[in-house]
Amino acid sequence: MVAQNASTADVLVIFGITGDLARKMTFRSLYRLERRGLLECPIVGVALDDWSAETLAEHARAAIEATGEPVDDEVFARFAARLSMVSGDFADAATYTKVAAAIKGRTDPVFYLEIPPSLFGRVVDGLAGAGLTDNARVVVEKPFGHDLSSAKALNDQLSAHLQEWQIYRIDHFLGKEPAMDIRYIRFSNSIIEPLWNRDRIEAVQITMAENFGVEDRGHFYDPVGALRDVVQNHLLQLIGLIAAEPSSGGPDGFRDKRVELFKSIRPADPAQYVRGQYAGYREIDGVAPDSQTETFTALKLHIDNWRWSGVPFFIRAGKALPVRATEIRVIFKRPPPLPFLPKTEQNEFIFRIDPSPGVDFILQAKESGADTTRAVNLGLVFADEMAAAPEPYERLLGDAMHGDSSQFIREDGVEETWRIVEPLLESPPPVEVYQPGSWGPPGANALVAGYPAWRQPWLPAHQ
């Protein structure tokens, strides 16, 4: 499924431009692209709000400033000159007629749907009815369904008018520079490849910890929960990066290998799944008083291929935990016992995604003045050695406008990740209550019994 259209977009049309995602992420990302000289086309916003281009520009500036991004007047003036607005109801065919008039003469449009997935089909129908989909790329936000059957139904809506090469499904984790670094570190350093297999690795731990709760997002979060919110998408994509085979390159080369890896992951076992809910969650506005939604999840996955057979992949993710950190930790097997060596700790290789992205290699060295060993950290924080990285949405929107689908998710990848977690959705264990500020319910520790205990995340020195 190689992209048929790799040309640069000559117009970007954003449905839902007056919404929260645009305010928090999109305007800032587009402004940063403008500052770097990478924005090359006009931007047309579409929303129900009856705004002028001037009102949209004022809103954009306020949104950018609210993110803490410094605003250069000259750069913003160039950015604002690109903005225009079409107002209308997404259910009204006249809205798409107005969009067609606004982009008349443009041949390579990108339509970005910053709207609920329930509206995707309606908008694509409207675009098709106005004759706007033939050479278009359409960018859509997660969630891509809430289970396997709904994901397939959503794809049926999109594919009624679009081919797969035209659909760009965003998972912002794939746009994170430290996530992309994983592939480069794995395959551009020949010392790593001989170690990256079941003969050398005992277990892999993936942690995504948040030190805050649901707060004012109860209405959104309670129907979703941690498994759907971050595991089925973000964290399984990280497994795809850490465990997939090398690719021959190209957008579908990378995605083919991730999907191949997903296909080799067994369906998750509910007996190896722990659900937790932090105390006080049910008192949050928008949360059902008898809610069984998990705010913490821990699970064990198995990959049935030659490289990874027998190596467990443990995932834990949750809210109201002690720290904010996302990392992948590869734990190597112990060396064999030798007469002159005491029992040593294990080597570990850590990819830190957030905060302060970097890598750390934990080695064992002799303790000075004693016949024992101690851990030595060979850590590298990327910001100390490299230029500032683009933001995830900055990278992904730029890629979409240039026709590069490498960091976007293909439909077969969506369906495979839903297949993996489907048994956990169908037969979930009861939630266990845990205290805010703890590392979740006790069952999470029992999950790793017989393997290395959960490690404390590697955190920046200042945190």
TrEMBL record:
GO cellular component, one term: cytosol
Pfam families named among the record's database cross-references: G6PD_C, G6PD_N
NADP keyword on record: yes
Keyword Calcium attached: no
Domain Glucose-6-phosphate dehydrogenase C-terminal: 185-450
Record-level GO BP terms: glucose metabolic process; pentose-phosphate shunt, oxidative branch
GO molecular function, one term: NADP binding
Amino-acid positions noted as binding NADP(+) in the UniProt annotation, renumbered to this chain: D89, F90, K142
Glucose-6-phosphate dehydrogenase NAD-binding domain boundaries: 13-177
SUPFAM superfamilies from the UniProt entry: Glyceraldehyde-3-phosphate dehydrogenase-like, C-terminal domain, NAD(P)-binding Rossmann-fold domains
Pathway stated in the Swiss-Prot or TrEMBL entry: Carbohydrate degradation; pentose phosphate pathway; D-ribulose 5-phosphate from D-glucose 6-phosphate (oxidative stage): step 1/3
Documented EC number(s): 1.1.1.49
Gene3D superfamilies linked: Dihydrodipicolinate Reductase, domain 2, NAD(P)-binding Rossmann-like Domain
Binding-site list for substrate: H172, K176, E210, D229, K319
Superkingdom classification of source: Bacteria
Homology family: Belongs to the glucose-6-phosphate dehydrogenase family.
PANTHER family xrefs: GLUCOSE-6-PHOSPHATE 1-DEHYDROGENASE, GLUCOSE-6-PHOSPHATE 1-DEHYDROGENASE G6PD
UniProt-listed NCBIfam families: PRK12853.1-3, zwf
Protein name: Glucose-6-phosphate 1-dehydrogenase
Organism: Mycolicibacterium rhodesiae (Mycobacterium rhodesiae)
